[in-house]
Amino acid sequence: MAFFQTPPQLSDPFEQDALLRSYLTRVLPDDARREIEPTLREVSALSASLFARTIAEQDEEPRLVSWDAWGNRIDRIDLTSMWRDAARITAEKGVIATAYERKHGALSRIHQFSLVHLIEPAWHVYSCPLAMTDGAARSLITAKNKALVDHAVPRLISRNPDHAWTSGQWMTERTGGSDVAISQTVAKRDGDHWQLFGTKWFTSATTSQMALTLARPEGNPPGSSGLALFYVETRDEQGKLNGIQINRLKDKLGTRMVPTAELTLDGARATAVIGERDGVKHITPMLAITRTWNSVCAASGMRRALMLSSDYSRRRVAFGAPLAQKPLHRETLAAIEAEAAGAFLIAFRSVELLGKDEADTSSDHERALMRLLVPMTKLVTGKQAVAVTSEALESFGGAGYVEDTGLPRLLRDAQVLPIWEGTTNVLSLDVLRGLAKGGGLEPLEREVDRCLQHAHVSLRETAEIARQAFTHAKSWIATRMDKREIVEAGARRFALTLGRTIELALLIDHATWALDHNDKRWAAAAKIFSRAPIDMITNDDNTLTDAADLLS
Ligand code: UCC
Q: What pTM did the predictor assign?
């Protein structure tokens, strides 16, 4: 008889996600959890039902139609059917609205991001425009521009698909996406409004109805303080593009359903959101939100890859038994399970802090912690997402490398996570910026202590690994404060060490709670996680900088 392999199945992502369920049991009061859970089950069923479509429609891509049949320039982007459906689902399921209705106070962000965690892998990175939409709503609210808040925010957070808008975040120019201060777009005053002139080199999800962007008002000085934050609607009342030309769609490694475009702004009518300067500073509320989305989506991508891999391991028989019974295969999957669990817990810790900040229930310590944790979580989870999805693909053997299984897309889509919204290096430097501006490492130290002080007796050795890594990071930075180049060169090692230490501490914290509830799984994850590199700092910085000099 012919031999065929059985593809992996996805039944119920919520039911299959033991960590999400135990985390929600730990952090939510029973009544809140009872109210929230049906919405998660509904979205989980939807996510499972879309699974087959994510494979069947994975070759669909957005298309730029530059001209109509009669020679008129129209610059229309036709979206994939999955993306059109995702817009409706977002509104109907309140994927943005849940955070702003704040039905569960500070816990509402946990509710919202649990929805995101379940649905994200099912809709071809539609989380990209949603992250920016959420970030735009938050930035407009923070800027307290009443006219724009009244006009745009109800649409950005709407539950009505016919009324809802999404927003872009146009920050990247030809000069690059990291050093935003050298942006070249110019803003010229036009009565009460402004007109923008320049090129935006990467604009994600360009079909959005509005965008927040940066431009330099004429006469302003160079540097980021001379940029201002602007609100732009992409089309006018007749549906014509607002002084915008779409030059082309980018041909990318992954996120191919995301219509990422290159734009020319040629007199785009714009409104200043808050003053005429300090645009970078005023867009940072958006960055905090989009970076948090990035972290949650990194965790959810890892979870999806693992669900498929573990399901497959029970179906695939090789060398006389299912892979799930092979010791080496089990150990390999356990190692990536531990990584995914650490990533999930740090991502949702950022989410908790964001929720408290917005509900105005944060302490000063929690606000300082959030400033550091958001970039650190984004950079550490972005790297883990690439490593975990790569390992998960390998666990399928050749099938993981074949396009029509739908598996390679998981890795391609993960590869953007360490790039957009700040690369690993840029965010490592942002962690240093946060330390310099805030209270140094104290907020992180308190967080490590909070997690480890009640560590279960069986996890004391594991807790010691986290403590030692943190102490090493603390002494490394303390003894190099005056050596700017050494600190900059080591910023990534330092930030990754802190990020992985916090992940381990959070794993121990969760595992200690779980052990009290007869669940040994997360203690096992903490132990396995602690065997992977946590402390990446070296005291021998000069050897590395000398080597880098020779090799560069
Ligand atoms: O990638 C993009 C869109 C992709 C789609 C989104 C999908 C998301 C998830 C989906 C999941 C599936 S748009 C491009 C994103 N670009 C970036 O993220 C920029 C990366 N570059 C940086 O982050 C840089 O560090 C810059 C641009 C912030 C550096 O700017 P400056 O102006 O050179 O730096 P300064 O002078 O240090 O900062 C200016 C001000 C300061 O405030 P003041 O003036 O009071 O001292 C800083 O403290 O901004 C403040 N600031 C911050 N505040 C800078 N960074 C932060 C921060 N992270 N938090 C709070």
A: 0.98
